[in-house]
Amino acid sequence: MDNFFSYISKPVSIDDIDLWVDKNNICYNKLDLFRDFVFSVIDLIYETYLGDEENGFQLSEEDNHRHFKWCWDKTVDNFKKESVYFDNDTECYLFVKSFIDETFYNQKITEVKNSLTKFFLEVFDLERPHTYSDLDLLLMFYKNLDKSLINNLQH
Questions:
Q1: pTM for the complete prediction?
Q2: Which of 153, 132, 114, 145 is nearest to 27 (CA)?
């Protein structure tokens, strides 16, 4: 149990974060790109979502699915205009979608629903303290988005 609590609560030293970055072949430029991609999706979700219970308008699960797909596709298209190509890889799409479903679409607590931007700012910022749990989450996002990134030489 002590190991679990350390995993989720004990900050990792800056030196250990540097080792983690090297060990996992994290490229800081890609990390910035993936952060921008995730924020673009989240910004579109916040700007265009109409199904807020507080407004008396509840969307169906299918409506939420279509909304997320539209936000995802729009973000992929926007990055394509900048010559950055993401495959609409189902594994990455489903990974991000399941996370957003839990933390936004299916979330009943307004504070959690409205905290996605802050949450991802903290996750993607390696200058702030992280736990191993934070680093594992960041690595999952990084690996999934990295698999979806299409080498620009192919275009």
A1: 0.87
A2: 145
Q: Where are the domains of the chain?
A: 12-154
pLDDT-derived band at 10 (thresholds 50, 70, 90) equals confident
Contacts of residue 145, Cβ cutoff 8 Å, sequence gap at least 6? 30, 34, 37, 38, 86, 92
Burial class (CB in 10 A: 0-12, 13-18, 19+), 48: exposed
Residues 117-129 pLDDT 10s: 999 999 999 988 8
Q: Tell me the C-alpha distance between 88 and 77, whole Å.
A: 10
As a whole number of angstroms, the distance between CA 149 and CA 152 comes to: 9
151, 86 contact by CB (below 8 A): no
Q: What is the mean pLDDT of residues 12-24?
A: 92
Name the token pair of 63: 């409506």
* Size (the chain), residues: 155
As given in the structure block, the two tokens for residue 26 are 């994290």
